[in-house]
Amino acid sequence: MTLPQLFFAYFALSMTVLSLLIVTRKNPVHSVIWMLVLFIHIAALYLFLNAEFLAAIQIIIYAGAILVLFLFVIMLLNLKREETAQKYQSQWPISMGIALVFAIFMTMIVGKITVMPALGEYSVEAIKAEGSMMTIGKVLYTRYLLPFEIASLVLLVAIIGAVVLAKQRVE
Amino acid sequence: MLVPLSWYIILSAVIFSIGVFGFLARRNLIIMFISIELMLNSVNISLAAFSHYLQVMRGQILVFFVITVAAAEAAIGLAILIAYYKNNPTIKVDEINLLKG
After folding, report:
1. Who contacts B9 (Cβ-Cβ below 8 Å, separation ≥6)?
2. Beta partners for residue B27, in sequence order
3. Closest CA relative to residue B40, chosen from B10, B7, B71, B61
């Protein structure tokens, strides 16, 4: 095993264990904290894949915004009663079966991929010459300008929706 | 290319299926939301890996949009959860049956 493979093996193992910890903890706060550790691992994996911009927004948006939102909601709700309750629904063996079938199916299918499309123009050297942020910014603001605008519309809908849903009704 | 692409896809599939299990099996609505985030993240890993190995930028752009949609989804979902909790103080999915008829 070479050094990159060892690096990947550590990340794969720890990410699997962290995911299992996230879905099996009784206290949602513990789940969120393990999620934070998982997100930092994912950001490191993005760096390994030459996606520096993604690593940055993974930390800033996911760890900094979404997880804090989760923690806030857990704090707002009084979950004392829920913690003593049973963790899993009665049909949990079926769920485990579905998840296992999916994982085995995907693992079997992956080795069978033989046709690979032609390589694009954004090789490691090309990205390095221009800078990661510059490259992704150019692509985002020229070719994917309309999807980018639609993304801002999605965020606007989320803002208005959250305000409408959460505000007190005044008669 | 020292690490094969298939390793990333298998890692992504494993994390996705753990997310599926968490979503289907847990009773806590917040943990179900966290499982959805887990699934979105596993897909992001495979997109970034494809983007790197096929030397295209499309995968990274798609990850950017997935993160946007995930943020919107978390905000709306948790707002609905809080709005529901005001009337019926429970977050167990098997007790949330207002629309059962």
Report:
1. A106, A110, B46, B49
2. none
3. B71
Q: Convert A57-83 to b/e letters by CB count within 10 Å (16 or more is b).
A: bbbebbbeebbebbeebbeebebeebe
CA distance A23 to chain B (A): 5
Q: What is the ipTM of this complex?
A: 0.91
CA A151 from chain center: how many Å? 17
pTM to 2 decimal places = 0.90
pLDDT tens digits, B26-75? 888 899 999 999 999 999 999 999 999 888 889 999 999 999 999 999 99
Is there a contact between A87 and B71 if contact means CB atoms under 8 Å apart?
A: no
Beta-carbon separation of B91 and A77 below 8 A? yes
Q: How many CB pairs under 8 A join A and B?
A: 229
Sole residue written with tokens 């930092």: A40
* CA separation for the pair A14, A101 (Å, rounded): 22
Q: What is the pLDDT of residues A138-167, one digit of tens each?
A: 999 999 999 999 999 999 999 999 888 877
- Return d(Cα A17, Cα A22) in angstroms, integer: 9
